[in-house]
Amino acid sequence: MRILRKSHRSKLAALLPWYLNRTLPPAEQQQVERELQKHPELHQTLNEWHTVQTLVKGQQVQSPSPEVQARLMAQIRAHNLPRRQTLPPWLARSWGLMVTLAMLCLLWTVFQPGIQLRWQVSQGDIAGFHIYRAPAGSTDFTLLSEVAQPSAAGAYRFVDTTVWRGQAYTYRIVTLGRDGQQLLSSEIIVGAGAALPGQLSVALTSVLLGWSAVLLLERWPIPPRRYQLR
C-alpha cells in the first residue's frame, strides 16, 4: 500500500466533499476515484463527509417570512443599483466661489451700496456738477464724478461705492454754470458707516447664493458616459 504524502493527502481530502456531491469536473472526479482505489484509508474521510451530508439533508428546510424576504430583496436591489456620480467637492466649491464673485459684482453694480448724496437746486443756468471727496479734516480733495446733465425735476443723486469702513469723508459739490464758472459750492461730512448695512447685505447675499450653488452642484448627478463603437 502506498503512503500518501501529507500535502497530497490534504488536496485529496479537500476534493472529497465535491466528489460526494458529484460537482467535480469529470477529469477530477475520475482522479479521486482512482486515488480511493489506491488508498483505502481515504474511505474513512469520505464516510465522515457522507455522514455530514446525510445530517444536512435531514434537517428541515425553513423559509424566511415574506416580510424578511421582502426586506432582503430590497437591500439586494439597493446594493446592486449603480452609484450616482457627482462633481468632486473641489470643483463644486470652485464653481461656488465663481458664483459668489459674479453675484457680488452684479449686485454691487445694480444696488450700489455706498454713501448716497442727494441734493436739489432751483432751475437756472446750470450745466452740471463736480463732486469731490477728501478724508474728513483734510483739504486734499479728489474729483469723483462729473454730473453733466441737469435734472428736469431739480433733484440729483450720487452714490460713492469706494468707501472704507471706519473712514469719514468730506464731500464737496460744485455747481457749474454753462460758461464753466462755479456758481455754488457746498460741503458735507459723512461717515463710511452709513454704507455698511447695504454693503453687508450685498456681500451676505452673494455668499449665500454661492454656498447654495455649492450644495446644488455637490448633489447634482453627472450623466453616465456613453461609448459608441465604431
C-alpha geometry = rod-shaped
Helix-and-strand structural type: alpha+beta
CATH architecture of the largest domain: Sandwich
Provide the domain count.
2
- Main beta-sheet strand count, sense and barrel state: 4 strands, antiparallel
CATH topology of the largest domain: Immunoglobulin-like
CATH superfamily of the largest domain: Immunoglobulins
Written as H for each helix and E for each strand, in order along the chain, the element string is: HHHHHEEEEEEH
**Helix content estimate:** 40-55%
Head-to-tail CA distance between termini: 65 Å
Name the beta content range: 15-25%
Gyration radius over CA: 44 Å
Strand order of the largest sheet: 3-2-5-6
CATH hierarchy, class of the largest domain = Mainly Beta
Helical segment count: 6
